[in-house]
Design goal:
Uridine Diphospho-n-acetylenolpyruvylglucosamine Reductase, domain 2, disordered N terminus, 3-stranded antiparallel β-sheet, binds protoporphyrin IX containing FE, Cytochrome p450, 16 helices, 11% strand
Length: 459
């Protein structure tokens, strides 16, 4: 393993990396092929340094360095101006973007809502929405028409998170919100690709669409909150749980604006990521017949020949399904890169990280690093067989991040992935329309480039 031996920190410019061109540095190389570029940086060692225009980046390629940033010295690493400028227009001061005392208070309030036991309450919602999706697929199945799987999974994951947030709400808001959220997510993806696009206040057609979508979501969310405050109610959805939390010290509940920011955060964080994981899982399963065979055998054993609808109680028995999910998240981690900004100077594996510099951590890079994984590009769920992961470094696999800011929705996402896969594969068989390998496109999340058309037939 290429561990750097530390004799005290090197000077910042002693950290190796590509030089790029005089003005833009490596900006073009990064934009041209983001995944190829960040992966190529492992050739410089445990820490690689590069520049895009006026910004200097330190990419950490070693699990101990990742641990340093996310866990050991996490207080020294803020989310950074770039991440905050990107997300704040949408989520305000929600859990993903807040920092310091506000973040800690909110995290303590919200964490219990996402414990595995509480998430179990949403199992039936997840399978109901999956069955509704399969109903929508019926005409395409009968006509042999391809379905664009990422679009289908995005709708499913959005329906699940909307149902989880506003379960008992009757009215048209959930659907209106869903459409507006799609516009907002699309805009974030676009801005990731075109970072110098005019800010939202400039009235371009795209920005007008975005602002209209934001108004729609805000109005709908505030209307639901007001209705709940007026009528009380005994709903047990995420919104009710959020509204029911009380600060330990002051006894105060969340105000409307904070509630809105957290609702928006959960929409944004909880839907595209899960949808992409599901799309990749369906693709990988359909292109690996041995894996598909084992998975179907497990479904037969656990759910019976008539393939009853799985419940949360089946999950411990659907072990192979879980291994497939874990391996999918290794090869295609939806949150493929995370940035931090150093507050004070630090040293990582012998490299000096100056104050204010940007640090990038990429699950995609670590998950395919040949020092830590044999045949790193091969899909092999056996890597996650019980006992096989014992003794591995904690941070060679971190699809949900780590340390205090680890994904709060991890249990919910994993439960959803297992239940959706078991429900879908119990009832149908999917095949890509082309034999060409599907490429990953690194936008705000990792998506199949150009969509993923698949033909759906009976199981
Ligand atoms: C496969 C699905 C998912 C993946 C891969 C994923 C990944 C991640 C990652 C890597 C982080 C940490 C980001 C960082 O350190 O900068 C994160 C944070 C977060 N995720 Fe997820 N996530 C998923 C699903 C969900 C779901 C379903 C929800 C909620 C409904 C959710 C809510 C959040 C929130 C609120 C945070 C911020 C936590 C904090 O900063 O305290 N995520 N997620």
């Amino acid at each position: 393993m290429s561990t750097t031996i530390s004799n005290g920190p090197r000077p910042a410019n002693g950290t190796p990396g590509p030089r790029g061109t005089p003005v833009l540095g490596s900006m073009r190389d990064f934009q041209r092929d983001k995944l190829g570029f960040i992966r190529s940086l492992t050739r410089y060692g445990d820490v690689a340094r590069y520049r895009t225009a006026h910004l200097t980046w330190y990419q950490i390629n070693h699990p101990d360095g990742i641990r340093r940033v996310l866990q050991e010295n996490n207080r020294n690493y803020g989310k950074g101006s770039l991440t905050l400028n990107f997300f704040k227009p949408v989520v305000g001061e929600g859990l993903i973007t807040s920092e310091g005392a506000l973040w800690l208070r909110q995290r303590r309030l919200i964490q219990p809502i996402f414990h595995r036991r509480s998430v179990a309450a949403f199992g039936a919602l997840m399978t109901d929405e999956t069955l509704a999706m399969l109903e929508r697929w019926r005409p395409a199945m009968e006509g042999g028409e391809p379905l664009d799987v990422p679009v289908e999974m995005a709708r499913l994951a959005l329906d699940v998170v909307t149902g989880a947030l506003f379960h008992a709400h009757v009215g048209e808001e959930p659907e209106v919100i869903g459409r507006a959220i799609n516009t907002i997510v699309e805009d974030l993806g676009y801005r990731f690709e075109v970072p110098f696009y005019p800010p939202h206040r400039v009235p371009t057609p795209r920005n007008r669409r975005f602002r209209a979508a934001m108004r729609t979501v805000d109005q709908a969310v505030y209307a639901i909150i007001a209705e709940r405050r007026r009528d009380g109610g005994d709903e047990e959805d995420l919104l009710a749980l959020l509204m029911g939390t009380r600060d330990e010290a002051s006894g105060e509940a969340m105000g409307d604006k904070q509630l809105r920011d957290e609702v928006m955060t959960l929409f944004l964080a909880g839907h595209e990521t899960t949808a992409n994981a599901l799309s990749w899982a369906l693709y990988l399963i359909s292109t690996h017949p041995l894996v598909e065979g084992r998975l179907r055998q497990e479904l037969d054993e656990v759910l019976g020949a008539d393939r009853r609808v799985p419940t949360i109680r089946d999950l411990p028995d659907l072990m192979y399904t879980k291994m497939v999910v874990d391996e999918t998240l290794r090869l295609y981690p939806p949150a493929w890169i995370t940035n931090r900004q150093a507050i004070a100077e630090d040293e990582i594996l012998g490299h000096r990280i100056p104050a204010k510099s940007f640090v990038t951590l990429s699950p995609y890079v670590l998950h395919r690093h040949p020092d830590y994984w044999q045949r790193p590009d091969t899909f092999d769920p056996e890597r996650f067989a019980p006992g096989r992961t014992d003794g591995r470094p904690r941070f060679d696999y971190f699809p949900f991040g780590g340390g205090p800011r680890q994904c709060i929705g991890q249990s919910m996402a994993l439960v959803e992935a297992q239940l959706v896969l078991a429900t879908v594969l119990g009832r149908c068989r999917l095949r890509p329309t082309s034999d060409e390998p599907v490429e990953a496109e690194a936008l705000a999340t990792l998506r199949p480039r150009g969509g993923l058309p698949m033909i759906v037939g009976p199981a």
